[in-house]
Design goal:
The chain has helices at about 25-35, 40-45, 50-55, 95-105, 130-140, 140-150, 155-160, 195-210, 250-265, 265-285, 290-300, 340-345, 345-355, 360-385, 390-405, 410-420, 425-440, and strands spanning about 70-75, 80-85, 110-115, 120-125, 160-170, 180-185, 215-220, 230-235, 310-320, 325-335. It has about 450 residues and is an alpha+beta fold. The protein folds into 3 domains: about 20-115 and about 230-385, Alpha-Beta Complex (3-hydroxy-3-methylglutaryl-coenzyme A Reductase, Chain A, domain 2); about 120-220, Hydroxymethylglutaryl-CoA reductase, class I/II, NAD/NADP-binding domain (Alpha-Beta Plaits, 2-Layer Sandwich), CATH 3.30.70; about 390-440. The strands form 3 sheets. The protein has a 4-stranded antiparallel β-sheet. A hairpin with a 7-residue loop joins strand 5 and strand 6 (about 180-185). Helix 4 packs across helix 14 and helix 9 (about 250-265) packs across helix 14 (about 360-385). The protein is globular, with a radius of gyration of 25 Å. Residues about 440 have low confidence and may be disordered.
């Protein structure tokens, strides 16, 4: 594995203090200036996908189901500033990830890397008379497989990708009998690569049948893309966690202890890793990537040693300056693309990529890993410091106000009163509205 090369950062700082206090229109103008968006881009952000476009994307289309598109701020990854477009309905996610990115800046931000974008195509071979001999024949046929597969993907080959190798796995004891599984490795460059890999598996199946004497059944990619990993790390001075009468050391220790719990216990790890995907999925959706594939790969990777574990590691260490620091790291498969698929046809996804400003799929994966680590940091910090419910319910108050029928101009006012009273309930919000606040506003 190798680190991708960090690009020169010629953009303004992503540390947008008070961005959340701006009006919606002010935020649009701020981002337009930051990312160089034009009027067509702003229209795409406001309008998103059309019903006519949706009708060509899925079968039996009826309409659209919209998600809020927000912006994570404060990110510094490999010395470069990023604003993170996130399509998500949960109210705490964007605030949490932005807060964690601000904390990470105290230690120089995130350092991220990735492996080459190699995907795995699987061909299932049944009724193989001599598995050991078949394996030797298949491995020796690597040049023939390359000559067969590379011409199928000329654009990927021109970009420096293409066939990278073949592997054979034995499954001697399955409910359907012994199987030989062939892995075809394909470097997909800036594409996610599902279609390319599936095409390669289909094309190779007849040759693999001839080499093995078996019968090919399934020919499909694997979403456990463990040859296409991304990782991110950060080191934050313990003193950065101090505030509001709370010392930094107990908070940092609490984060490390919470992570150890998730490493050891799958019941905790499931929620821990779900929180990581709370950050990764919204970025994947905003950029038109397959968040379901990312979920499958992440959770499978979390169980790669036979025990489902946390995808992150947090420890209190001696920092570079000798002072205590909290060091965190994440590693997971991230098969994402910036070309093809929905990314190419969804106008809002194209604008999201423009805001993000990534040049390659690997860069997108590295930023995505940093976002997952930031989201995890924020959740663990809340658990270690004040408990997750306090912060989450404060943000949930806006949902409650909307559910009670508060008009747009009163949502924040009703939410603020619910928070002040500590009664974040729909019934109480309805009482506040009925008590004259709405009439006063009119």
């Amino acid at each position: 594995m190798c680190e991708s090369v960090a690009r020169m950062d010629q953009r303004p700082s992503s540390r947008l203090s008070g961005f959340y206090r701006q009006t919606l229109e002010q935020r649009l103008l701020t981002v337009a200036g930051w990312a160089g968006l034009d009027d067509a881009d702003l229209t795409a952000l406001r309008a998103g996908l059309s019903v006519e476009q949706a009708d060509h994307l899925v079968e039996n289309a009826l309409g659209l189901f919209a998600l809020p598109l927000g912006l994570g701020v404060n990110f510094l990854v490999n010395g470069r500033n990023y604003l993170i477009p996130m399509a998500v309905e949960e109210p705490s996610v964007i605030a949490a990830v932005s807060n964690a990115a601000r904390l990470a800046r105290a230690g120089g931000g995130f350092t991220a890397g990735s492996s080459e974008p190699v995907m795995i195509g699987q061909v299932q071979l049944l009724e193989v008379p001599d598995p050991a001999q078949a394996e030797q024949a298949i491995l020796a046929a690597r040049p023939r497989l390359a000559a067969l597969i590379d011409p199928l993907h000329p654009s990927i080959v021109r970009a420096g990708g293409g066939f990278r190798g073949v592997e054979v796995r034995h499954l001697p004891d399955t409910p359907a009998g012994p199987m030989l599984i062939v892995h075809l490795l394909l470097d997909c460059r800036d594409a996610m690569g599902a279609n390319a890999v599936n095409t390669a598996a289909e094309a190779a199946a007849p040759l693999l049948e001839a080499l093995s004497g078996g019968r090919a059944r399934l020919r499909i990619l694997s979403n456990l893309s463990d040859r296409r990993l991304a990782w991110a790390s950060c080191q934050i001075p313990v003193r950065a966690f101090a505030g509001d009468g709370v010392e930094g050391a107990p908070v940092a220790a609490g984060i490390a202890e919470a992570n150890a719990f998730a490493w050891a216990d799958p019941y905790r790890a499931a929620t821990h890793n779900k929180g990581i995907m709370n950050g990764i999925d919204p970025l994947a959706i905003a950029t038109g990537n397959d968040w379901r594939a990312l979920e499958a790969g992440a959770h499978a990777y979390a169980a790669r040693d036979g025990h489902y574990r946390a995808l992150t590691d947090w420890r209190v260490v001696a920092g570079d300056d000798g002072e205590p620091a909290l060091a965190g790291r994440i590693e997971l498969p991230l098969a994402v693309g910036i070309v093809g698929g929905v990314t190419r046809v969804h106008p809002a996804a194209q604008v999201a990529l423009k805001i993000l400003g990534v040049a390659t799929a690997r860069e997108l994966a590295e930023v995505m890993a940093a976002v997952g680590l930031a989201q995890n940091l924020s959740a663990l910090r809340a658990l270690a410091a004040e408990g997750i419910q306090a912060g989450h319910m404060a943000l949930h108050a806006r949902h409650v106000a909307l559910a009670a029928g508060a008009p747009a101009g009163l949502v924040e006012q009703v939410a603020a009163q619910l928070i002040a009273e500590g009664q974040i309930r729909v019934a109480r919000a309805a009482e506040i509205l009925a008590g004259g606040m709405m009439n006063d506003e009119r």
